């Protein structure tokens, strides 16, 4: 699995996944091209065996204190293996680099999988937009994340994990030449927000 920054060259592959993931409210190619080219946006894609299986986007104006998760989508066949969480984490890490304080998103009220993902990362519901998703007449749940708190929790978890890992290695006689067991990167599925307020996981 390869995760990398998206470019306009990825437009066709992204649009194929966009239409499959959001058949009733897919963005237009022109809208997606504008998102990929915007200096205020940051998009990332996931590839497996040379095929694009996921993408995600953040909108964070330089110098602004808040940002929006624009979209996250994972191909149906690739869902359920943590790729969505990995993409969300990548977006939040970029928001940290841009010195954002609060991250917002909208998620469909009929998408509990996406809601659970966001809640598990510390997002909280702050409002609703009735019948926001058209033509489906589905409400949008507006969520907010205190990014500085999220970043601090991750740092604490990382600090706590290092001593425990070292202790575990010593107890098994591994020492400083610890095994380099390749662990899969965990992520999730798909989600979406802001520009059109989609949401699917």
What would your notes on this structure say?
The chain is of the alpha+beta class. The chain contains 5 helices and 8 strands. Strands 1, 2, 3, 4, 5, 6, 7 and 8 form an 8-stranded mixed sheet that branches. About 16% of the residues have low confidence.
Q: Can you give me a brief rundown of this structure?
A:
The chain is of the alpha+beta class and 201 residues long.
Global geometry: globular
- What are the low-pLDDT stretches, counting only 5+ consecutive residues below 50? 165-197
State the separation between the terminal residues, measured CA to CA. Answer: 19 Å
| Structural Rg | 18 Å
List the helices and strands in order: EHHEEEHEHEEHE
Q: For the report, how would you describe the main beta sheet? A: 8 strands, mixed
Overall mean pLDDT stands at: 82
Give the helix level as a range of percent. 25-40%
> How many distinct helices?
5
Instruction: Quickly give the structural class.
Output: alpha+beta
Q: Per DSSP, what share of the residues sits in E-state strands of 2 or more residues? A: 25-35%
Number of beta strands: 8
Layout of SSEs?
Layout: E1 2-5, H1 11-21, H2 29-37, E2 41-48, E3 51-59, E4 66-74, H3 83-97, E5 102-108, H4 112-120, E6 124-133, E7 138-146, H5 147-171, E8 191-192
Helix pairs in contact: 1-2
Question: What descriptors fit this protein?
Answer:
8 strands; alpha+beta; 201 residues; 29% strand; eight-stranded mixed beta sheet
């Amino acid at each position: 699995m390869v995760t990398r920054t998206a470019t306009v060259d990825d437009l066709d592959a992204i649009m194929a996944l966009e239409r499959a993931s959001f058949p009733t409210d897919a963005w237009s190619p022109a809208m997606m091209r504008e998102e990929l080219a915007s200096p205020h946006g940051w998009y990332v894609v996931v590839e497996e065996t040379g095929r694009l299986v996921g993408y995600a986007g953040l909108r964070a104006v330089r110098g602004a204190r808040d940002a929006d998760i624009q979209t996250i989508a994972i191909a149906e066949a690739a869902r359920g293996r943590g790729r969505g969480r990995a993409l969300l984490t990548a977006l939040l890490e970029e928001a940290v680099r841009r010195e954002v304080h609060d991250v917002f998103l909208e998620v469909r009220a009929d998408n509990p999988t996406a809601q659970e993902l966001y809640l598990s990362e510390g997002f909280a519901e702050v409002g609703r937009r009735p019948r926001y998703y058209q033509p489906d007449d589905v409400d949008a749940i507006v969520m907010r994340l205190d990014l500085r708190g999220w970043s601090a929790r991750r740092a604490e978890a990382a600090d706590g994990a290092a001593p425990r890992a070292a202790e575990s290695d010593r107890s098994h006689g591994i020492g400083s030449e610890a095994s380099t067991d390749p662990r899969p990167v965990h992520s999730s599925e798909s989600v979406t927000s802001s520009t059109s307020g989609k949401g699917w996981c």
